[in-house]
Every structure is written in C-alpha cells, then in structure tokens.
Amino acid sequence: MQTPMILDGKALAKSVEQELQVRVQRIKDKTGRVPVLATIIVGNDPASVTYVRMKGNACNRVGIRPLKIEMPEESTTEDVIRQIQALNEDPDVHGILLQHPVPRHIDEMACFNSIDLAKDVDGVNTNTFGRMSMQMDAFKSATPLGIITLLKHYNIPLEGREAVVIGRSPILGKPVAMMLLNENATVTICHSKTKDLPEVVRRADIVVAAVGKPEFVKADWVKEGCVLVDAGYNPGNIGDIDLKNAIAKCSAYTPVPGGVGPMTISSLIRQTVESAERKFGITNG
C-alpha cells in the first residue's frame, strides 16, 4: 500500500492567505476602506481567548482589521443580541463572529440567529444553514467549508463515495454532512445513539470525526484505503481518531494539529473578504 497522503491544512491555509492579501489590497485600492471582522467573546474561557487571538492574527496577516469585543461572563442573552444588532447596523463591519461556546446561561442559538445573514461569515445562523443545505447563495459553516476545501484541493473524490460523519453538532456535524451530500456523496450521520458504530464506520470511504473525544475512532473501525478527516482537537494535541494506529490503513488523513484547524480560520477570513467584496461591488478576479 502507498504511503498515505497528508492533507496539510496549514500549508493550504497559508496559500489561501496569500490570495486573500491580494484581494484585500484590491478592496483598499478601490474604496480606501479596510474590511473588518468583529469578534464577540463572552467571559474569559482560556481556549476561547486563544482562538480569538489566532483569528485576530490571521486578520492582520491578510490586511483586514480585527475588532474584538469583550463582554463580561454575566452578560445576558439580551446583552449579546444588542451587541450583535449594533454590529449588524455598523456599515464598517463586514463579518460578525460570536466565539463558541458562550456561558451556559446564554441562549447561543438565539444569538447566532440575530446575526445578519450578509455578515454571518462563520455560517452559524439557522437560516444560513438552511440556504446552504438547499444550495442557495449563503455563507457556510467555517469548519465544514474548510474540510470540503481541503478535500477538493487534494483531489479527494467525493461524488459517489460513502461518507460517515461522527457527530451531529449544528456548527460542524450537520453542516458538513449537508455539504458532502451536496457534493453527491452518500452520507451517514452517526452519534451517541448509533447502534454498531464500528460496523457503520467500516463501510466509509471518508470518515469525518467530530465528537470531541480523544482517539474515539479506533484503527480497527476503519477500512483499508479510506480518507480520515479528524475535526477534533483535545488537550495534548490529540484528535478524535487514533491516528497513530489508523494512518497505516488509510489513503489520506488530516494531521492534528495542522489539518482541519487552520482551514477553519482560513474559511472565516475568506468569507469576511467575500462579504466586503459584495458590500463594495467588487468582483473577485
């Protein structure tokens, strides 16, 4: 069997950023304006603080302005929605991101659904999800978009392939399943109530693991030659797939770190640039 191909999200994200730098410069040259991505963070969860910093750094690398809005832990759902509505109405803001997760007392979905669809560059509004699923014009959930972009870049066939998605979260499992379906894959969504999960996974040509449990998918669950997409990230740089044992069986895989993670941020920044281009009537290319 050939050596498995590494689906290098870090390298692809760097390449995408170089393209985005050119597009952002074009916006600046034509309008004198700088695209802005507003990020709301509620509380001070250490992981969220790190993610927001990484997203801000990516904004700076491509030339767009990160606008960080920090809200106290005790903020209410109404407080967050008021802040989102102010950003919806701000003509200088082109993308809005509410950092997930928010404190438990906040209705996260109500907040997501208050984001203007034209600025929903993280693809979290349920209307965005519906439009994306129906193949209408819409931004897409950032991590699923990153996964599809990565698979296509490496010429992984999707049409007619059997894909198994493990996890059904509204911002990862469900949207990536819909996007794979829209690429004409045959999709099975698995979750905690799925019976005989290892047997279901063994059918898959493509496995997307998004359960948030370290090394949950075992090597003997995957068939020879499958493609492994590990969308999990757990303490110690460990994904949701037992990659060290499963790599030998697969044809391609996303490393952890350096696979899906960089593509999530890349997709977020890309859609912010697209939002600004639409706002200013600039056609890419």
Automatic annotation (TrEMBL):
GO terms for biological process: L-histidine biosynthetic process; methionine biosynthetic process; purine nucleotide biosynthetic process; tetrahydrofolate interconversion. GO terms for cellular component: cytosol. SUPFAM superfamilies: Aminoacid dehydrogenase-like, N-terminal domain (SSF53223), NAD(P)-binding Rossmann-fold domains (SSF51735). Its EC number is 1.5.1.5, 3.5.4.9. Residues 7-122 form the Tetrahydrofolate dehydrogenase/cyclohydrolase catalytic domain. Keywords: Amino-acid biosynthesis, Histidine biosynthesis, Hydrolase, Methionine biosynthesis, Multifunctional enzyme, NADP, One-carbon metabolism, Oxidoreductase, Purine biosynthesis. The keyword Ribosomal protein does not apply. It catalyses: (6R)-5,10-methylene-5,6,7,8-tetrahydrofolate + NADP(+) = (6R)-5,10-methenyltetrahydrofolate + NADPH; (6R)-5,10-methenyltetrahydrofolate + H2O = (6R)-10-formyltetrahydrofolate + H(+). One of its GO terms (molecular function) is methenyltetrahydrofolate cyclohydrolase activity. InterPro entries: Aminoacid_DH-like_N_sf, NAD(P)-bd_dom_sf, THF_DH/CycHdrlase, THF_DH/CycHdrlase_cat_dom, THF_DH/CycHdrlase_CS, THF_DH/CycHdrlase_NAD-bd_dom. Belongs to the tetrahydrofolate dehydrogenase/cyclohydrolase family. Catalyzes the oxidation of 5,10-methylenetetrahydrofolate to 5,10-methenyltetrahydrofolate and then the hydrolysis of 5,10-methenyltetrahydrofolate to 10-formyltetrahydrofolate. Homodimer. This is Bifunctional protein FolD. It comes from Thermoclostridium caenicola. The lineage of its organism: Bacteria, Bacillati, Bacillota, Clostridia, Eubacteriales. The gene is folD.
